[in-house]
Amino acid sequence: MFNNLFGRCGKDVNINQDEIFNIADQASGMDLKNEEQVRALIQSVGSIVGRKVDKSVEDQLTKMILNGEVPTDMDQLLKMMM
């Protein structure tokens, strides 16, 4: 599953698997109903892929996460990201 994820995303951006796993580990202990923590997580992911997250995109992602609207199915999540 993760090889598929990195294979699909890695072609477009230069990502380090260890950094992604580190953020995933940190996120698993976060309160995803806490707006500050969610925004920090979004910015962390943006910095890993070397892209500045636009304020409107950050707002939209934050709202989705706080409202529990982010898909938990990996295929759906990949479709959102691509």
Automatic annotation (TrEMBL):
This is Stage VI sporulation protein F. It holds the Pfam family SpoVIF. InterPro entries: SpoVIF. It comes from the Bacteria.
